[in-house]
Amino acid sequence: MARELMYRDALREAIDEEMERNNTVFIIGEGIAERGGSYKVTEGLLAKYGPKRVRDTPIAEAGMIGVGVGAAIAGARPIVEILYIDFAMLGMDMIVNQAAKFRLMTGGEGRVPFIMRTQGGTGGGVAAQHSQSLEAMFYHVPGLKVVMPSTPSDAKGLLKYALRQDDPVMFLEHKHLYMTKGMVPDGEHIIEFGKGDIKRAGKDVTVIAWSNMVPRALEAAARLAEEGIDVEVIDPRTLVPLDKEMILTSVAKTNRCVIVQEAVRRGGVASDIASIIQEEAFYDLDAPIEIVAGLNIPIPFNLELEKASVPQVDDVVAAVRRSLHAKPLAQAAE
Amino acid sequence: MSEQASKANAPSRELLEKLFKTAYKIRVFESEGIKLYRQGLIRGYFHPYLGQEGIATGVCAALSEGDYIASTHRGHGHCIAWGADVKRMVAELLQKDTGYCKGYGGSMHIADISVGNLGANGIVGAGTPLGVGAALANQIKGNDAVTVTFTTDGASNNGTFMESLNLAAIWNLNFVLVIENNQYAVSTRIEESTRETDLYKRGIALGVESHLVDGNDPIAVHEIMQDAVAKCRRGEGPIVIEARTYRHMGHHVNDPGKYMPADKLAYYKERDPVDRARNALSEMGGATAAEIEAIENEIKQEFEDAVEFSKASGEVSVAEFRQFADIY
After folding, report:
1. B169/B203 Cα distance (integer angstroms)
2. How many CB pairs under 8 A join A and B?
3. B314–A contact, CB cutoff 8 A
4. In degrees rounded to 5, what are phi and psi of residue B25?
5. Residue pair B174/B147 in contact by the 8 Å Cβ criterion
6. I want to staple B108 with a disulfide (CB 3.0 to 4.6 A). Which of A99, B60, B122, B147 is the partner?
7. Nearest chain B Cα to A140, which residue?
């Protein structure tokens, strides 16, 4: 059985269930207690669990992230909610030099079950310091898990898993997704990291997308289906660990691949996935890998310019067409 | 200040012995460690705690099992005072697989979470939020454990100093921030780093009970720390203690410390914390010269044994390391 839930309610269910199950799970953040958070994810948790486990913090990101990391090292299970991923940059020392390194530095003995929940992406003209997609910064740092759910079901299952494993997790939500709806299985619903999901099966072209690019890729696929083009949309769901097997299997089937990321093109995760595919599946490819990504630019305020900065459905459609119209390598050589 | 206080509460022979043993063990570890470094047996960075032994010694003697500490880049003294196994510490510095971190961490990262040691830290100031976090974890678990972060004058100008102390304050955490003010951030004098050189006053600004103590007096440090721990366990934390001290040498083994004025260094060496612990043990504790010599010999032997143990220990395994790397 399943119910239809909004992304934000699915996240709340995950937190609620895990707080119920384990009394060392707690959550801190700006305006998350009485106010219930900017996106209402934590609404009602203060009333249910009290001020000891649901706490508002002052505006001090480095401090609160650091305190979360310390609490995790000492055996609790903190969730630190950071309002915007842009603000997580204030706490980078604690994420990069402390949380990510502790396990190795202690010869494997020390563990850091620290979760930073935050949200990124463009949406509604919130401009350059509230719109970024910064997953590549965390993806680059060994020791961090990077999770980017695109659906309510994935959001719930992955957050529950995050709260039961022992490594630092960057749980990156998208501001556009909180109000989206989807079916969420009843009962204990847990999704292991490193297992991607085929969001739409198809045989002609593989489109790899995550977070808010998944609905756009699906919309592009629906449009292309009208022309008889059968797109497979796959969502790795976690970028670290990455479900390479799902990606390579899909590419082996379709022989064509488009990778879509909202983040800027330069130094992005899409480039790394492309390099993995060319290294491990070069001879499966009938066309160059297409990357559809944000411009290498800070996000502007003007809504038209904002749209021009990040991939739109049309961009995905165009990339799939380019991929299909490219001649197979053997022919090109003739 | 401290002398009077010490006389009012005559410390037991047992405590005096403990303080001297700890201070002397740190002194031996650092002086002998420097020799190993000079011989090329220890590589990387080595920040000696020489001259500051009184602080870790006095602080840790006031803590109990179940409590937590977080340390600095100059962390050997804190580990030893916390009761760490010198064998495993030396093995870590010698990059051996029997070290605390299997040779993966080194001098700046020795930690032992199984006994509440959150570890040394290569990032100046990072121990403060981590320590406050441990205190928060213990508050949530509902125990009365106290967490101490050893921090420094250098770290006190880092943003997380105020951010995390403020969190400890608003949440009434069982947390003691011990600021080891050795008056240098690497080579920069404290007067160049801040206009208000009384660092404990920063705690007052956040509504936190704050004290200044002579960091070269292990008995005074212990006394003020005991009081701080008792207050924390009663739910009256956090507390700030600034312990003023001075290094006996430069920032690390290869820093000759030429910027340290000779007269100031002489002033602090006359107030050497290890000598003071030794004198207290003989004068207040009634220990004979022979008894003190026996303690010293035992500690020197312990260090020599640790070096032998480390030399005989296995090398790290690259294959095992590769396997470990796979989890990333």
Report:
1. 9
2. 144
3. no
4. -65, -40
5. yes
6. B122
7. B328
Longest dimension (CA), chain A: 72
| pLDDT score at A39 | 94
What's the pLDDT tens digit per position in A245-280?
999 999 999 999 999 999 999 999 999 999 999 999
User: Would you state the pLDDT for residue B325?
Assistant: 87
Structural domain boundaries enclosing B84: 2-326
Tokens of A178: 């909180």
Work out the widest C-alpha separation in chain B, in whole angstroms.
Answer: 59
User: In sequence order, what are the beta bridge partners of A200?
Assistant: A233
Which residues have C-beta within 8 Å of that of residue B102, sequence separation ≥ 6?
A107, A108, B316
Between A93, A94, A106, which is nearest B101 by CB?
A106
Other Cβ atoms less than 10 A from the Cβ of B313: the count is 19
User: What residues in A contact B116, CB-CB < 8 Å?
Assistant: 74
Which residues are CB-neighbours of A305 under 8 A, at least 6 positions away? none
DSSP A99: I
Q: Which has the closest alpha carbon to B155: B180, B118, B119?
A: B180
Residue numbers of chain A with a pLDDT score lower than 70: 326-334
Q: How far is B11 from chain A (nearest CA, A)?
A: 33
Separation of alpha carbons B116 and B119, rounded Å: 9
ipTM, 2 dp? 0.94
Candidate from B103, B111, B130 with C-beta closest to A70? B130
For B97, which residue in chain A has the nearest alpha carbon? A107
pLDDT of residue B3: 46
Whether residue A272 contacts residue A145, with contact meaning beta carbons closer than 8 Å, is answered with: no
CB contacts of B138 in chain A (<8 Å) are 74
Tokens representing residue B66 in the block: 């179940």
CATH number for A197-329 (one of 3.40.50.920, 3.30.1490.100, 3.80.10.10, 3.40.50.2000): it is 3.40.50.920
Single-letter residue type at A257: C
Q: Which of B113, B134, B166 sits opposite A60 (nearest CB)?
A: B166
Which CATH number does the domain housing residue B70 bear?
Answer: 3.40.50.970
Burial of A224 (0-12, 13-18, 19+ CB in 10 A): buried
List chain B pLDDT tens, one digit each, 328 residues.
444 444 556 899 999 999 999 999 999 999 999 999 999 999 999 999 999 999 999 999 999 999 999 999 999 999 999 999 999 999 999 999 999 999 999 999 999 999 999 999 999 999 999 999 999 999 999 999 999 999 999 999 999 999 999 999 999 999 999 999 999 999 999 999 999 999 999 999 999 999 999 999 999 999 999 999 999 999 999 999 999 999 999 999 999 999 999 999 999 999 999 999 999 999 999 999 999 999 999 999 999 999 999 999 999 999 999 988 888 8
- Indicate if A176 belongs to the active site: no
- Residue range(s) occupied by CATH 3.40.50.920 in chain A: 197-329
Distance CA A273, CA A257 (A): 11
φ, ψ dihedrals at B217, nearest 5°: -115, 95
Query: Which chain B residues have a beta carbon less than 8 Å from that of A57?
Result: 167
Half-sphere exposure of B186 (CA within 13 A, CB side): 3
Please report the pLDDT score of residue A235 as a whole number: 99
> Topology of A2-185 in CATH?
Rossmann fold (3.40.50)
Domain count, chain B: 1
A125 touches chain B (CB under 8 A): no
Q: Where do you find CATH 3.40.50.970 in chain A?
A: 2-185
